[in-house]
Design brief:
CATH architecture of the largest domain: Alpha-Beta Complex
CATH class of the largest domain: Alpha Beta
Oligomer: single chain
Number of domains: 3
Largest sheet: 10 strands, mixed
Radius of gyration: 22 Å
Low-confidence stretches: none
Number of strands: 20
Distance between the termini: 7 Å
Strand content: 15-25%
Strand order of the largest sheet: 9-7-5-2-10-1-11-15-19-20
CATH topology of the largest domain: Adenylosuccinate Synthetase, Chain A, domain 3
Structural class: alpha/beta
Mean pLDDT: 92
Number of helices: 13
Amino acid sequence: MPGVVLIGAQWGDEGKGKATDLLGSRVDYVVKFNGGNNAGHTVVIGDEKYALHLLPSGILSPGVTPVIANGVVVDIEVLFQELDDLISRGVDVSRLLVSGSAHVIAGYHRTMDKVSERFLGKRRIGTTGRGIGPAYADKINRVGIRMWDLFDEKILAEKIEGSLDQKNHLLVKVYNRRAITVDETVEELLAYADRVKPMVADTSLILNQALDAGKNVLFEGGQATMLDVDHGTYPFVTSSNATAGGAVTGSGVGPTKISSVIGVIKAYTTRVGEGPFPTELFDEMGEYLLKTGGEFGVTTGRARRCGWYDSVIARYSSRINGITDLVVTKLDILTGIPKIPVCVAYDVDGVRYDEMPTDQTAFHHAKPIYTEFDGWTEDISGCRTFEDLPANAQAYVRSLEELSGARVSAIGVGPSRDAIIPLHDLLH
């Protein structure tokens, strides 16, 4: 069994942690390949709820080796806050590996993120202010700091000096802030060097060796397809590749070692931050989905924008990710809604679009074309087989499958770890 990629098929917050749990003990490695602590996964185990931001969800599965790969940007302070929280709750975190090539988020990245976002005003992107974008910008500009650099103080100081040279001019002359010194940043990062060193490794080598040995490796994406820096709703996107291709570059594993791609998708749609959202609801039904679905960001606490299922986006995600299996989550939230609209196409100034418009202006003006499906009133949270679902719920899922371009292999019917209906084996 080669590698499996798990990605969000909408704008994020689809419930990827539940899909990771479904694979559970059958996976040997869970790899985070993009993003930073700007997204969150909520995992419910019994009466315990865990909110993960930087760590892969697999850290909660005994026997699994969790890996933070080279495509991630790491805030080391946050890393240890999360680890210490899990340790205090009795979770074994000793298996965690961190790529030496992963880039580090320093204090000045967070500062630049916040002041530049404020400076943009109405043109703001809606970032989390956690320094992810500026850290990726430094990576591309070749002035970034990598995990390996923490173990050579001279190299670390030189790299920080190079990175701060331009930033301090901006901070002082444009943003009217104080300059950040090299010494304070070196001190900030070196404070964690000794503790993080045993975790740092050549994770690309380890993962390739594991795959060659027949181990099961799950590549878990942060954020989601529509936030991908290349394929999302640019510029209202994240700063990394959250699509399936990002698993290859973000982990150092070749594409021939990926056997399947699992897309996680809600039975409706949500989005956090700025940017276009064709099926967004501004009425009492949007408020109902927000409250009933508990649609508040795990990382930021921000209320999510809510709307109906968008099959145009689902087809787009299936196509660009090569999705082989869909996991539909939060089907239970739709219980009690008499008629459930699903967006099947867009109207853009009188022109019908059955596929995602590539033109940014067209997508901003897209109006949803809906088909309605009959709802159900029965409580489905206890259903564990497809046949247990009410007939209308079954019909809704089958319609989503037909409209979305990939088979539905699992259905989430509640927040708990076992509230899921498996239809097909996700490890195939």
